[in-house]
Amino acid sequence: MFDSVMIANRGEIALRVVRACRTLGLTSIAIHSEADSGTRAVALADRALCIGPAAAAKSYLSIDHILAAAKLTQAQSIHPGYGFLSENADFAEAVEKAGLTFIGPPSHVIRLMGDKVSAKQAMQAAGVPCVVGSEGALSGDADEARAIARSIGYPVIVKAAGGGGGRGMRVVQSESELMDAIALTREEAARAFGNPALYIEKFLQHPRHVEIQVLADSHGNAVWLGARDCSLQRRNQKLVEESPAVGIAPEEIQKLGEQCARACLEIGYRGAGTFEFLYEDGHFAFIEMNTRVQVEHPVTEMVTGIDIVREQIEVARGKPLSFTQSDVVPHGHAIECRINAEDPRSFTPSPGEVTRWIVPGGPGIRVESHMHAGATVSPHYDSLVAKLIAHGSTRQEAMARMRTALAEFEVQGIHTTIALHRALMEEPGVTEGGFDIHHLERCLAAGFTPKEQA
Ligand code: ADP
Questions:
Q1: Which of 160, 192, 309, 410 sits most deeply, having the most CB atoms within 10 A of its CB?
Q2: Measured from the CA of 276, which atom of ligand 1 is nearest?
Q3: For 228-269, how does the pLDDT look when each residue is reduced to its tens digit (9 = 90+)?
């Protein structure tokens, strides 16, 4: 059983893992780029080591540098956080081969779920509802592709098996566009993901994004921790998440949750994970699994009282989950706003030095952030500077607390999306809940914009 954890990440998630290690009495080792030497995770970790320059390819994405650092510091395990190498099966395998514990599922499970064609096949076999689509990857035969798309019914979406980050997919409205779309997506997929395999799915026009959080150990236990609704998105990036999902019957979520937990056992899953679904006309359809902790995990922690990162680390240490499914009793409602260092109207990144940083507080308020006055937002990495989470006994109370907290949050030196979130928390569609994934884009196209100065 390991007692030291190297964190192959940065920002708020590195800090979140450092805190979990401290709470568990484990030694935390932060690795960082030259740009991040003054960050909170580096300051608070028991040990820290610089592994390369600011460019992520030579630091946070360098498997060689990370493994060399693990050897040097005698780290026994690696927590990958989210993003960077967290879903890279080659990295997980290299960590396993170096004799360390990868805090996540076994590398072969990451590989299975990282390929969207094999993931979908595994989920179908496990009885999880999937989007109607081709059986496996397209063979390359044009007549066959046309026949598949016709039987699914237009519009369809052509997707890369190795796709990610919202890339490698193309919506096709009619048969005349199909073959061009396949050729373009195949070329893009080969170039960007090194895997030209494609598949076709029904394109759902007004879905909500609803996901199920799971946790599994190595003792045959898998549990689900309720659903999150992450439909408030811009360019496939989530801005606001909440739990539970408004207007979906708890029995429906329970049925889906049980299917996900069973699927975990069938694929040999271990650790924290998320099954992502599109929800339309009362039906759930699996799109992909994230085999890591997610940005939005705190909303689930707030409603269930379960420390997901702690459980994730403990099951990697070989312990059984500290609770059973019947102990999971959600309370109230939680909402998270992702606060980015961006102009709240143009969404242009706004790196630089933070000169004033006053965070909100009060009942039900949680702030996950690595920022403080005097800290610098680097232009090299993603622009997330804080996650503001509000919990209340009802959705209304959580929203009221969120509005109060957003009004208190003061940041100067950089632009942030706080003003956008203040406006969103007053927007009628958002306050009502249950909107689809295009809601924000529709609002923005109709001229929705924060009134206050950025
Ligand atoms: P990625 O791994 O790139 O995030 P996903 O498969 O999760 O890819 O899809 C990303 C987003 O693309 C979804 O959240 C949804 O907005 C859209 N999308 C994917 N598949 C479909 C589909 N079949 N119908 C409608 N929208 C889809």
A1: 160
A2: 7
A3: 999 999 998 999 999 999 999 999 999 999 999 999 999 999
> What is the CATH number that goes with domain 208-445?
3.30.470.20
45 close to ligand 1 (CB < 6 Angstrom): no
Query: According to CATH, what is the number of the domain 4-103?
Result: 3.40.50.20
Residue 332 to residue 200: CA distance in whole angstroms: 39
Q: Do domains 4-103 and 132-202 have the same CATH topology?
A: no
The verdict on whether 345 is a catalytic residue reads no
Distance 130 CA to ligand 1 centre (A): 12
294 CA distance to ligand 1 middle (Å): 17
Q: How many CB atoms lie within 10 A of CB 190?
A: 14
pLDDT in tens, 356-376: 999 999 999 999 999 999 999
Q: Does domain 132-202 have CATH number 3.30.1490.20?
A: yes
Token pair listed for 333: 């409602």
Buried/exposed code over 222-241 (b: 16+ C-beta within 10 A; e: otherwise): bbbbbbbbbbbbeeeebbbb
Nearest to 116, CA basis, from 239, 352, 314, 287 = 287
- Whole-prediction pTM value? 0.96
Q: Is 237's C-beta closer than 6 angstroms to any atom of ligand 1?
A: no
Domains of the chain, residue spans: 4-103, 132-202, 208-445
d(CA 284, CA 208): 9
